[in-house]
Amino acid sequence: MPKKESKSSAPRSDESDELSILKKIARLLEILASVNLQALRGDRSQAEMISMVDSLGCGPSEIARLLGTTPNTVNVALYNAKKRKKPK
Which of 10, 19, 61, 77 has the largest CB neighbor count within 10 A? Predict the structure, then answer.
C-alpha cells in the first residue's frame, strides 16, 4: 500500500515566495510601462522619472536597470532632487 503524502508547510512557503516574486515582477512591469510611455511622449525628464520610480520604493540599481542608465546617475539625480526640496 503506497504511503500518503502528508501536506507540509514547505510547499505553502514556496507558493508564497512565488506569489511575492510575481507581484514584484508585475509592479516593475507597470512602472516600466508608465515610465516608457512618459518618456516616449516627452512628458518627463530623466530626473523626474528617476524620482517617480524612487518614490515607489525601487533602489538606485533597480531604477538604473529600468531606465537604462547607471546607478551613479540615479544617485546624483536623487541627491539633486532632495537638495532642491530642502528649504533654505
Answer: 77
C-alpha cell at 40: 516616449
Whole-structure pTM value:
0.58
Tally of domains within the chain? 1
pLDDT in tens, 4-14: 555 555 557 78
Q: Which structural domain, as residue segments, surrounds residue 49?
A: 12-85
Evaluate whether residue 50 is within a structural domain: yes
DSSP string, 42-57: T-S-HHHHHHHHHHTT
| DSSP-derived secondary structure for 10-50 | HHHHHHHHHHHHHHHHHHHHHHHHHHHHHHHHT-S-HHHHH
Please answer whether residues 78 and 60 qualify as being in contact, where contact means their C-beta atoms are separated by less than 8 angstroms.
yes
